[in-house]
User: What shape does this take?
Amino acid sequence: MSNPRVVPFVLNYFQRRIRPTREVILYNVTLKVFRKSKDLDAMEKLFDEMLQRGVRPDNVSFSTIISCARICSLPNKAVEWFEKMPSFRCEPDDVTYSAMIDAYGRAGNIDMALRLYDRARTEKWRLDSVTFSTLIKMYGLAGNYDGCLNVYQEMKALGVKSNMVIYNTLLDAMGRAKRPWQAKSIYTEMTNNGFLPNWATYASLLRAYGRGRYSEDALFVYKEMKEKGMEMNTHLYNTLLAMCADLGLADDAFKIFEDMKSSATCLCDSWTFSSLITIYSCSGNVSEAERMLNEMIESGFQPTIFVLTSLVQCYGKVGRTDDVLKTFNQLLDLGISPDDRFCGCLLNVMTQTPKEELGKLNDCVEKANPKLGSVLRYLVEGLEEGDGEFRKEASELFNSIADEVKKPFCNSLIDLCVNLNLLDKACELLDLGLTLEIYTDIQSKSQTQWSLHLKSLSLGASLTALHAWINDLSKTLESGEDLPPLLGINTGHGKHRYSDKGLANVVESHLNELNAPFHEAPDKAGWFLTTQVAAKSWLESRKLVTA
Assistant: This one.
């Protein structure tokens, strides 16, 4: 009873020679032989023969067929056989129920799989590593990444040993979740437990580090894959290029692109060209951005809205307003509707455009987003407003756009106000931004220190917030309230996304112009501090000068 070709004859021989009290046992042994050879069709035929001979299948019959369906990666078949059990008065045991968590999960019936898993925890069924792997994958695909980690911790608590499939499934989930720090921790645990990374491990790590913008780790994994002769695919190359585009790693991106072009298995796609055009555009390299656009079109890809948005940014950066208009018209000719991100880019370009050319761009904005165009008319054209009309229209604009672009829109509008010397409008927009919670946590107060946090603001918005804060400090003194022992301004440190200069340099320069007694803290990068005594004296002197 070990050769699947011989086993039907052996079964038939015994059936002719003996009359066992439980003939189902003979059938179950035969089913197990077929399971070993993964022959589900033969098992189903044998099951039909059982019924024709009047032999009633038992739990072992069903669990053997179900386990074969799992081995053959046919979860729907496993579900089909499991759901036949009640009609034969068979009650699944814990092992079968445990197997069905995996089967239902793979078949896409998540609710049933989770119901069985809840029951498994309550009744303490014994679950195998395959089932845990399916549960982790299931939670990952559903976007419940904490659920993935909880299942993993429960698995370890039950003493079930992890394997490469589970580690790779977890790494993939952490990549989807954009949690590179957790991917790093899981990878460290994996290697400490003696497992060597395979292609799937490296691919999951590359996705996790790339999406999470862990550039050093991502580039190290890429280098290690090349050293081990592992092939990259287009998706992994694009993940790296998108990361480089977001972080401004131009040199690394160009090397990766050359590797990709020299690969025999990877072809550049729209995403590839989009990332490269973004890199050239952010650095203001118009000729290379245009060359890459032409190469994209020659390769059979139409420019996407992401590509055209990058080009608008590029032309705006170098002051080529007419080319911004040309790109906008190209967008319309391609039948693409300007989205919030594209309109935000147009608005940002306006903050870099000379006053005399703003009207050209305003016409584009009017077509792209009439609500934004209405707000800009008050700033660019000096439209007279009635009682609170500007604030009302700005509020309607912010309520009509996606949450992720509200802050960039507000920042750019305030920058434009500062450029046009419309400081009252800038303050009104800042106040509206605070009211609508576009800006949060700009100010913090404790018993010992009051602070202004400018890290998430553009240059114009930062200076506007600084003036508003100084006015608030003056009002505090006028009301007879005391200031805390320490006052601080937090600008963050490093290059500012809205300026080649760091925000700290701009704020420091402005504080010097105001003769404000704030000085950079030697032990806290990006912080400017002053004492209560110095601040009080300065605010009172400002009051005298104003009077």
Confidence is low (pLDDT under 50) at residues 495-499. The two ends are 106 Å apart (CA to CA).
